[in-house]
Write a structure and sequence with these properties.
mainly alpha, about 0% strand
């Protein structure tokens, strides 16, 4: 029971973050559905938005398998940001490895690598759930292989900035916790604030992408906005970390550290 009480606060914080993200997702879906960005009723796969074409192909067991593939990709992406925050927050000598500093460049590079691995996992599973008929049907309605490959690389670069920003936000929350603030509250607030921004940008990007005739200027504008916001979060979090590192340590936090050093 003592262990349960010790673990209660971290798990409750995790559940709170999950519920915040679920609520933001529900709001985004409501806006997308109400404005026609997404259609939740079956539509014939002729002259309709790209997303409806893909979803009309993913039926039955293929749809269930795709849910697993998407869940795996999301888990890899989330774990990447958490792992970066954990590695950047450990003390020197922990686990026999030197401490590493959170930096925008390394956060972006590992975020991009994580995005590529997540997409690779998605492709590996999806290629095993589509029949030859489904692949042929999808190939006839989607762009060529070169365009798809270029789109995957560009999407991975976008996800790299997003996951890099998420990694730096986690590190910023850890830095604030070291200065005496609550880590749980910081992470929940970050999920709500950053998640709201990402939700708005996601709905806007899908509004330009999920149409029968894609407007490149409109899609490019939303993609540029996505990248700009991700970069702002990336470097803004880095600035917050530097400011927290330069701030004096609160007395309440310094006393336990001094006691530990004396022991």
């Amino acid at each position: 029971m003592k262990d349960m009480k010790a673990m209660a606060r971290p798990f409750l914080a995790l559940y709170a973050m999950a519920l915040v993200i679920a609520l933001l997702g529900r709001i985004g879906l409501a806006v997308a559905g109400g404005t026609g960005v997404l259609a939740f009723d079956y539509i014939s796969a002729s002259g309709v938005p790209v997303l409806d074409v893909i979803c009309s192909i993913l039926t039955g067991s293929a749809f269930v398998a795709f849910l697993f593939a998407a869940g795996l990709a999301l888990c890899v992406s989330t774990a990447g940001a958490v792992l970066y925050g954990a590695l950047a927050s450990r003390a020197e000598g922990d686990a026999g490895a030197p401490a590493v500093r959170p930096r925008p460049l390394t956060a972006f590079l590992w975020g991009w690598a994580t995005a590529l691995v997540a997409l690779a996992c998605l492709v590996v599973v999806v290629l095993g759930i589509l029949s030859a008929v489904q692949v042929g049907s999808m190939s006839s309605k989607l762009p060529g292989v070169s365009v798809i490959a270029l789109g995957v690389i560009a999407f991975a670069a976008f996800l790299g900035t997003l996951l890099g920003a998420a990694s730096m936000v986690v590190c910023a929350c850890v830095a604030r916790a070291r200065a005496g603030h609550s880590l749980a509250v910081g992470l929940i607030v970050a999920c709500a604030a950053c998640g709201a921004v990402v939700m708005v940008l996601t709905v806007g990007t899908f509004s330009a992408l999920n149409v029968a005739a894609v407007s490149l200027p409109a899609l490019g504008g939303w993609a540029a906005a996505d990248l700009v916001v991700n970069v702002i979060l990336l470097f803004g979090s880095a600035a917050l970390i530097r400011r927290q590192e330069g701030a004096p340590v609160p007395k309440a936090s310094a006393e336990p550290a001094a006691a530990g050093a004396a022991g």
